[in-house]
Amino acid sequence: MSTPHNTAQNDEIAKIVLMPGDPLRAKFIAENYLDDPICFNTVRNVLGYTGAYKNKRISVMASGMGMPSIGIYSYELYKFYDVDTIIRVGSCGGYIPELHALDVLLAKSCWSESTFAKVQSGEGSDVQYPSPSINQAIKDTAKIMNIDLKEYRLHSSDVFYHETNQAQDIAIKNGCAAVEMESFALFHNAHVLNKKAACICTVSDSFVHDENLTSKQRENSFDTMIKLALETTLR
Ligand code: HPA
Question: Which of 40, 65, 179, 198 could link 12 by a cystine bridge, Cβ 3.0 to 4.6 Å?
Answer without folding.
Answer: 40
